[in-house]
């Protein structure tokens, strides 16, 4: 028999099993168990994927370094530096020095200098109304007339009673004179004389009481004519002619308000109280419309309240205004500006110079080499387009008024005329949020 060389570590073996007489059942190859245990597993595919990804990352990093090396090329760097050193056109201004008023701003309510709700002081029928709604009235002007007939009758009755009692008083006086003469001759007893003297005194007191009754009746009669107690303006009529009015009525006939002069009550923070006490007592107060631009009228501070409101931490003040043009009206809300003092030779710049950043207010100051530097500012107030500066710039320095949004510290600038033919430039709302002084 010829021998066939073994070419594989795996040996095939045919196994035949008899299922019955003369039959062969299922003949299959069988692997050698020892050889199968020695077989090595094939390499995993995940290892290849890891090597592929590592290669991609390495290529990406190389591309980044290559790009950065390209940007550091001398020609490219020169172009970028040229853009950084480009001259920026700006509108420039000069820091000035002048006297600046210092104001304290508050919110106020207009109140009538005097307000009177006119009531009747006697009961009766309202016979006539002597005013027109909205009419200016003077003290003593007739506003209404109550039916005077019952009060005139009461006055006449009191006068008649007094005349009767005066007659009795006069007669008692004559009798007393006679009793005095008779007493001298002992014609009457002293008791009769004393009784007559007492009667005379009693009748004298009755006459005085009658006079008081006359006065009361006269007052009530005068009350039937209702007059204005103050100079002012009549409001809406609250009772019509023909109605029965009573002194106990809750509503009056009309409200009269004094508009010239007029008062404004306003509040300021309690922290300003020492400033008010340190300065002069005579303060000027401006009443400004709600748009905070139109000054309505000028007045004087009248009084500072004697206590601080603990709930709001504010103090009330009252100012008086002549109000000749009636620009102020009771119940009106106005902005108030109290002139606290005047800063002599204050440092001022246009309001648009002041920029806002994360660290507060700053300005771009133009140096001698036409470069700009950021300078932090301490702003006292901004009023009518001008900012009063406590610290940061000095008079005579040049600052950027418009065009700040294009600037960085160290940028070079050139000054140009403001747009609009020399008019003041508009304040830009753009601030350098990321800037640092």
Task: Explain how this protein is built.
With 437 residues, this protein is of the alpha+beta class. The chain folds into 4 domains: 1-85, no CATH class; 88-98 and 345-415, conserved putative lor/sdh protein from methanococcus maripaludis s2 fold (Beta Barrel), CATH 2.40.420; 123-245; 254-343, Efflux pump adaptor protein, beta barrel domain (Elongation Factor Tu (Ef-tu), domain 3). It contains 6 helices and 22 strands. The chain has helices at residues 33-37, 45-71, 74-84, 149-184, 190-223, 273-278, and strands spanning 17-20, 23-25, 88-94, 96-118, 124-129, 136-137, 142-146, 225-227, 232-234, 244-245, 254-269, 284-288, 295-309, 314-321, 333-350, 355-357, 360-366, 372-376, 378-383, 386-391, 398-402, 413-415. Strands 3, 16, 17, 18, 21 and 22 form a 6-stranded mixed beta sheet that branches. Strands 4-11-14-13-12-15 form a 6-stranded antiparallel barrel. Strands 8-7-5-10 form a 4-stranded antiparallel beta sheet. A hairpin with a 5-residue loop joins strand 17 (360-366) and strand 18. Helix 4 (149-184) packs antiparallel against helix 5. The protein is elongated, with a radius of gyration of 54 Å. The two termini are 105 Å apart. Mean pLDDT is 83; it is low at 1-39, 71-84 and 421-437.
């Amino acid at each position: 028999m010829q021998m066939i060389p073994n070419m594989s570590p795996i040996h095939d073996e045919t196994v035949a099993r008899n299922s019955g007489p003369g039959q062969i059942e299922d003949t299959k190859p069988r692997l050698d168990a020892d050889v199968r245990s020695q077989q090595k597993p094939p390499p995993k595919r995940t290892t290849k994927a890891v090597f592929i990804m590592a290669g991609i990352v390495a290529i990406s990093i190389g591309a980044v370094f290559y790009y950065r090396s390209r940007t550091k090329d001398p020609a490219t760097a020169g172009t970028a530096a040229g853009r950084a050193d480009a001259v920026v056109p700006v509108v420039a201004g000069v820091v000035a020095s002048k006297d600046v008023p210092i104001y304290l701003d508050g919110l106020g309510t207009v109140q009538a200098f005097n307000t009177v709700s006119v009531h009747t002081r006697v009961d009766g029928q309202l016979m006539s109304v002597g005013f027109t709604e909205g009419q200016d009235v003077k003290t003593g002007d007739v506003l209404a007339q109550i039916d005077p007939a019952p009060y005139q009758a009461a006055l006449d009755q009191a006068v008649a009673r007094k005349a009767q009692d005066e007659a009795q008083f006069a007669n008692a006086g004559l009798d007393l004179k006679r009793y005095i003469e008779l007493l001298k001759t002992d014609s009457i007893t002293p008791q009769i004389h004393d009784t007559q003297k007492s009667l005379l005194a009693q009748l004298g007191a009755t006459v005085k009481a009658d006079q008081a009754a006359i006065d009361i009746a006269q007052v009530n009669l005068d009350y039937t004519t209702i007059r204005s107690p103050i100079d002012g303006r009549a409001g809406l009529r609250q009772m019509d002619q023909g109605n029965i009015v009573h002194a106990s009525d809750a509503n009056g006939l009309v409200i009269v308000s004094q508009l010239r002069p007029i008062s404004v009550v306003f509040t300021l923070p309690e922290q300003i109280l020492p400033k008010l006490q340190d300065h002069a007592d005579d303060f000027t107060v401006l009443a400004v419309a709600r748009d905070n631009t139109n000054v309505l009228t000028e007045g004087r501070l009248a009084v500072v309240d004697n206590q601080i409101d603990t709930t709001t931490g504010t103090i009330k003040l009252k100012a008086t205004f002549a109000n000749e043009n009636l620009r102020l009206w009771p119940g009106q809300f106005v902005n108030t500006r109290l002139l606290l003092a005047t800063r002599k030779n204050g440092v001022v710049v246009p309001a648009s110079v002041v920029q806002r950043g994360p660290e507060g207010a700053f300005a771009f100051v133009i140096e001698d080499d036409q470069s700009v530097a950021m300078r932090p500012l301490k702003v006292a107030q901004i009023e009518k387009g001008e900012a009063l500066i406590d610290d940061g710039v000095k008079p005579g320095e040049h600052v950027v008024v418009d065009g700040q949004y294009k600037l960085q510290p160290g940028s070079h600038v050139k000054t140009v005329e403001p747009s609009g033919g020399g008019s003041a430039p508009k304040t830009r709302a753009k601030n350098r949020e990321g800037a640092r002084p």
